[in-house]
Every structure is written in C-alpha cells, then in structure tokens.
Amino acid sequence: MSEHEFRTVKASQQVLKELMVPSYANFGGKVHGGQILSLMDKIAYTCAATHARCYCVTASIDSVDFLNPVEVGELLTLYASVNYVGKSSMEIGIKVVSEDFHQGIVKETNTSYFTMVAVDEKTRKPAPVPGLILEDDAEIKRFLEGKMRRKFKQHYKEELRQARRELDIDKELWRLDGENCRLQR
Ligand SMILES: CC(C)(COP(=O)(O)OP(=O)(O)OC[C@H]1O[C@@H](n2cnc3c(N)ncnc32)[C@H](O)[C@@H]1OP(=O)(O)O)[C@@H](O)C(=O)NCCC(=O)NCCS
C-alpha cells in the first residue's frame, strides 16, 4: 500500500441480515448472545478487511450491552462502518437491530466497537492501513469519538494495572462491608 492512500468510509460500509432460526436459541427460548457476537465479529472482519484490503484480526471488543432480547423468527440486521483508523488498527462501529417483520416492529439490540488490526500474512506483524476520507460531519464526529475511546481505553488499562499492582487486601478489607460476600478464610 502506498503511504498516502485514503479510502472513503462508504467504500467499506457493510450490512448483514440473518434470520434467527430455532437452532440459535438458548435454554430460555431467546437467541443466544454468543450467536449475535459471532455475527458481529463476522461483519467487523468484512468491514475492516474491505477497508484494509488485507487479512485482519480482532484485537479487542468494547463492552456489549444487550438492550432487548432477540426472539427466534426475527430478522437481525447488522450495520458496520469504519469509525477511526490508526496506523494498523481500525475501530469498527457496529449497530444491531432486530425486526419482527410480521408486525413491523424494529428494536435496537446493541451497539459496540471492535478494534481490528491489519496483519501482514507473511510476517504476521501489524500492517499499515489506508487513511479515512471523512465526507460529512457525522463521519468527522465518529472519527473523533473513536480517537477519544482509544485514548480513554489506554488510560483505563494503565490505571487498572497500577491499581492492581498497589492492591493490599488487608488494608482494603473494609471495602467488603455491605458487599454480597462472606469472609471465610
Ligand atoms: C492484535 C495484534 C496483531 C497486535 O499486535 P502487536 O504486536 O501487539 O502490535 P502493536 O503493539 O504494534 O499494535 C498494533 C496496533 O494494534 C493496536 N492494538 C494492539 N492491541 C490492542 C488491543 N488489545 N486493543 C486495541 N488495540 C490494540 C495498537 O494500538 C496498534 O494500533 P495502531 O497501529 O493503529 O497504532 C496481536 O496482539 C494479535 O495478533 N493478537 C491476536 C488477535 C487474534 O488472534 N484475534 C482473534 C482471537 S480468536
């Protein structure tokens, strides 16, 4: 890839539709969360690999909150778009909606952000990805938010690492007061 290559957000946007069949159900009769995660990973890969035009791996997934249960018989639609790109990483924003198409009811299921990294197939090392051409305010906003999320995640990881290093359980036992646990050591 040449150093100054840029591609539009629209060029790699993806839509994936899948009917929720009975084999996707959990013991409670609703669609298994893992099934939806697998579809999200699939569309994240397609979107990232279309932008990078090379093999990509999933480096991390932001928290996924399931807002509404998905029923067997509903049509799930996933939308994916590259929000932000670094040197070799891409933040893919994914929105999932489910639709009871007999009744015409559409529910938002969840939104999440996957970080995908382009990898050189020979060396298995991270490979540079094209830049993004931002064509409207919504794309600029998503790019800036992606950059913020990346910074916050790095800070959070560093702070957590530091807090774990400094954790002295004997000094912190008072924090268990009122928690749903019982000491039995
Ligand atoms: C993701 C991976 C390629 C990163 O390799 P690495 O040698 O640590 O690479 P670097 O530290 O140079 O990071 C490369 C890029 O990935 C990003 N990155 C690495 N780990 C990350 C993480 N956990 N979360 C988010 N971004 C991450 C870096 O920020 C960097 O981004 P940039 O190039 O845009 O600045 C490597 O950790 C890997 O192969 N992981 C396994 C991925 C996989 O198999 N996924 C499927 C699991 S079943």
UniProtKB/TrEMBL annotation:
This is Acyl-CoA thioesterase. PROSITE patterns: HOTDOG_ACOT. CDD domains: BFIT_BACH. Gene3D superfamilies: Hotdog Thioesterase. The keyword Cytoplasm does not apply. GO terms for biological process: acyl-CoA metabolic process. It comes from the Bacteria. Belongs to the acyl coenzyme A hydrolase family. Keywords: Hydrolase. GO terms for molecular function: long-chain fatty acyl-CoA hydrolase activity. The keyword Translocase does not apply. It comes from Marinobacterium nitratireducens. One of its GO terms (cellular component) is cytosol. InterPro entries: Cytosol_ACT (IPR040170), HOTDOG_ACOT (IPR033120), HotDog_dom_sf (IPR029069), Thioestr_dom (IPR006683). Residues 10-122 form the HotDog ACOT-type domain.
